[in-house]
Design a protein that fits this description.
Elements (H helix, E strand, L loop, with lengths): L5 E10 L17 E3 L10 E2 L2 E2 L3 H10 L4 E12 L4 H8 L15 E5 L11 H9 L7 E4 L3 E9 L3 E2 L3 E2 L1 H10 L10 E8 L13 H5 L6 E4 L6 H10 E7 L16 E5 L7 H7 L4 E5 L2 E3 L14 E3 L2 H10 L11 H26 L2
Parallel strand pairs: 5-6, 5-8, 6-7, 11-12, 11-13, 13-14, 14-15
Antiparallel strand pairs: 1-2, 1-8, 3-4, 9-10, 16-17
Length: 362
């Protein structure tokens, strides 16, 4: 049977990951990817609008023929295996929609891993995700050296970081029907809030806990890092409204097709965000709050991904949450209580960053 968005390759050359490839590559280009002996290009990893392939380095390896390993049988390409929750969900598994079509034909799935890894220990969220997709750990093969595969099935990426899920991929996710594996009960009045309370120093809007303390009783506060993947999905599927602080938990939506839900996205980084693009592909009811100000990146530990920000108008944000029914309509904004919470966060942030800088310059 012929499938769309899939290429088959005989005697495929799998070129390995170089030291810096997962961090943006060399001059923005990466080595790893799929070639065959005729030098045809197949679906390689895309981030943004470009395939970041280092053609010169690839051709050099092919000419020198530094092949070190043969893999017999038929395998499905998973792509690069990123050991970060968000990148794993939105990038590493976005080809696995095709696995169920070939489950009786393939020996397993191949993933590219960094050269310093041999047989990596997979974190629980990866194992849980593979289980949801029907993929057993023993059927996963890791590629960290130049390898030729006897027969390779190469599905197209369904999601691309900063572009979001492709329309056809949302349809494939419907076919996968992961929600049928989740025991949930939908509540039209329920709101699920995905909190970053335990990541205050790794990127959060300061003073958040004050607002959280005023939440309505129908708000389910979720700490995704403390529960299994299927439990997170249960929280998502059970609620009518989802509220996300800007963070990696949003990526879990890339396991699901477009949702009939309102999603409220509270930003902590100014400007456009690839997470906005992700969310735009997952709902027709997206509400974004972005009246925030980033803290300046003045410490060694600071980076855009872990920036801590402030609400420009906390009272206005309080009113916004009331209008979204996240905060009870009878509650009133208490400026002193908010300032106390914000100052506590600011002081802890400064102490953490100064301590890190002192250790760095020691």
């Amino acid at each position: 049977m012929k499938y769309n968005y899939i290429t088959s390759v005989k005697n495929a050359d799998l070129l390995p990951v170089r030291k810096n490839d997962f961090g943006g590559g060399v001059n923005g280009k990466v080595l790893f990817g799929v070639y065959d002996r005729n030098n045809n290009k197949y679906y390689n990893h895309i981030r943004g609008v470009n395939v970041w392939e280092d053609r010169v380095a690839r051709e050099k390896i092919l000419i020198e023929n530094k092949q070190t390993k043969n893999l017999t049988g038929t395998w499905l390409l998973g792509g690069p295996l990123f050991f970060h929750f968000g990148h794993f969900i939105s990038e590493s598994i976005s080809r696995l929609w095709a696995y169920k079509n070939f489950i009786n034909e393939v020996d397993g799935v191949v993933f590219f891993i960094p050269p310093y890894m041999k047989s990596p220990k997979l974190p629980n969220y990866m194992i849980e995700c593979f289980n949801l997709l029907g993929i057993e750990r023993q059927s996963i093969q890791f590629i960290n050296e130049y390898t030729q595969v006897e027969s390779l099935i190469v599905p197209e990426q369904g999601t691309v970081l900063s572009v979001g899920a492709k329309n056809w991929y949302n349809e494939k996710l419907k076919d996968l029907d992961i929600k049928s594996k989740i025991d949930f009960s939908f509540n039209k009045n329920s709101i699920a809030f995905f909190s970053r309370r335990n990541f205050k120093l790794s990127g959060r809007n300061m003073g958040w806990d004050y607002f959280e303390s005023n939440f309505s009783k129908n708000v389910d506060v979720v700490f995704p890092e403390k529960i299994r993947l299927d439990e997170q999905l249960k929280k998502i599927l059970s609620a009518r409204t989802l509220v996300f602080e800007e963070g990696s938990s949003i990526h879990l939506l890339d396991l699901l097709p477009k949702l009939d839900k309102k999603i409220i996205f509270i930003k902590r980084r100014a400007g456009s965000s690839y997470l906005e693009t992700l969310l735009e592909n997952k709902t027709d009811e997206l509400v974004i709050y972005n009246d925030i100000k980033e803290s300046p990146l003045i410490f060694k530990k600071d980076a855009r991904h872990n920036v801590c920000s402030r609400f420009n108008q906390p009272e206005s944000f309080f009113s916004f949450l009331k209008s979204m029914k996240v905060i009870d309509a009878l509650n009133s904004f208490n400026s002193n209580a908010f300032i106390e919470e914000e100052e506590k966060d600011i002081n802890n942030y400064l102490l953490d960053r100064v301590k890190a800088d002192n250790e760095y310059f020691r």
